[in-house]
Amino acid sequence: MRSTPHRTLGAGALTVAALVALSLPVTPAAAQPAEKPAAAACTPAQAVTNGGFESGTSSWTQSSSGVITNRTGQSAHGGSSFAWLDGVGSTHTDTLTQSVTIPGGCSTATLTFWLHIDTDETTSSIAYDKLTAKIGGTTLASYSNLDENTGYVQKSFDVSSFAGQTVNLSFTGTEDSSLQTSFVLDDVALDTSGDTTPPPSDSTRTPAAPSYTVSLSSDTSGTVWNGHESVSFTNASATALGEVYLRLWDNYHGTCSAMPIKVTHVIGGTAGDLSVGCTALKITLPTPLNQGQSATVGFDLGITVPSGADRFGHDGAFSFIGNALPVLAVRDSAGWHLDPYTNNGESFYSLAADFKVTLDHPSTLLVPATGTSTDTPGSSGRTVTTATAAKVRDFAWAAGPFTKISGTSPGGVPVNIYSVSGISSSSAQSMLSTAKTAVDAHAARFGAYPYGELDAVIDNNYWFGGMEYPGFVLDLVSTTALTHEIGHQWWYGIVGDDEYNSPWLDEGFTDYATDLALGKTGSNCWSGVSWASGAEKITNSMAYWDANSSRYSTVVYGYGKCALHDLRRVLGDTAMAKLMKDYATAHWYGVSTTAEFKAAAQAATSTDLTSFWTQHRIDG
Length: 620
Known about the structure:
Largest sheet: 7 strands, mixed
CATH superfamily of the largest domain: tricorn interacting facor f3 domain
CATH class of the largest domain: Mainly Beta
Low-confidence stretches: 5-39, 196-200
Shape: globular
Number of helices: 9
Number of domains: 4
Radius of gyration: 24 Å
CATH architecture of the largest domain: Sandwich
Helix content: 10-25%
CATH topology of the largest domain: Immunoglobulin-like
Structural class: alpha+beta
Mean pLDDT: 91
């Protein structure tokens, strides 16, 4: 995904100025427990009670009555209640505190909350009024009147260092003597997941070889889909598999009380409680699977697409449905990967799978989708689109009265451009030409494109610039962005990675591939590198970048690709080209890690690269 500083989500839109003005969270101090708790099994949990404030002041301590409220003047992010700190317009302090216990044994603990700020201050440079978020004695972030935004923005922080402790979570708002600033909080959550006691000496990724069969039918607008999904899988690990987790990623776009993705009537296992912001559903298998054994889990599925030109949302009559199908989480030597959703980048770590998806919809809607599609007549006025895809990591589709144009690249790849209303025919033709050129350029460098047709859905209202799915991308009218998203077909799609914990392996590699496809050499680009702190590294996870969001694109995309350009200058053009193609071949449909890439690069040269990795802050 290529981010742009602009988001539009219907009535609760964030303006360009709002996102530009997002505060810079303070990097958490080294407030570690004096003695680490003993390792224990992790039970994913939600540590904050009454985070939506719908039960009044229950579990919260407020400095004065009325901080937790549903009074007019502000509105809730979800439900009817919220916490309103300050907004008085005179010298004033409000506090809100809850004692939380973060379970030990969990490798991931993520605090999230939604924040809206409005102010009567007119300055663009002085922070008169401030909100501070703390956990224990550590300040997580500070916000001020300079961070005013027109809707709610979700904030996210890695608080894993407090595992096994009971600490106070607190918010403190202070106002000066004049002009109000309101700090409005809602839907506070602290989700824990992961396991610090993984299967011993077993790094095998499982459940393996997933095969998804999906049948859905839409309403007349293509924004509501209902039907059934099943997934068959095999335990590839020597460690027995007693449960699986489904990732219901798009529940991030709603609340746990109003989920856009609903799974019911589970068969083939027993559904447990939802966790990680209602994006993870544990299913206990009837009998643990030994290595090589297989099972199938099925369930009824309901999808409701929210308003907004998002990777999951609808822009008027045009729906974009990414990450909506529940997919299996991955277990490896680190345990279950149950990372939280990130809106800055991606969390979507999954193994290559086969999909057969049947989509019944009104014939007035075109439905581009991952894989190769065929249309057959349905009931009166309806069409059934059947999409099949092999060895892909996810499945996405769109629905709407698109304008479609098609062509074939010189290398033989069928390319379809689907445009929303307002995209000119000349822009669509330009994007078709770009897509045909890009898919062949990437294929020549990294290996032939294996997914049959390639669909690009074009809408200039996307706040995020572009978004990749296998055989299916969302994009603005932009040569660079579309070339980038098509590059993701190789770096994330074919050569997979843990997108949450190693985002540079897809974004940095894809930006490097984009430069090459566009004839850019990256000359001297490393000379402009300036690190924000000693903790900042190209290889940091999304937990770090969500807490330091203003640096994400600069470091992961920019410094990441510049490091690869620098590596090319060390190895030489021919050796670097061979390294990248051989590396893609070796990890085709598999998963790449930083350690594996570093080893492959070192094997390609007699030059000791130890100092290179240190200089470029590439750990792993």
